[in-house]
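Fold in tokens:
===
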Amino acid sequence: MFASCLRLRNSLAGNARHRLFRLMQDAEYRALKADLKALPAGSRGTRRGELTSRLAAVRKTYGLGSCYQFLQ
């Protein structure tokens, strides 16, 4: 029983690592992260909200939008 649970956990962790690696290699994601980092700290404008929503959309395409989406 323990061995099968361990294999399942390792499989899920490997899958998550693979998705995360692909996300980090995505040019659009990297450009959006750089734009977000370039904004002044503490700024709460529409630009920050737009960037974060676009980042969330890119994460969602890689299956990293939420825990429930990841398990599908």
Helices lie at 2-25, 27-38, 46-61, 67-70. The mean pLDDT is 89.
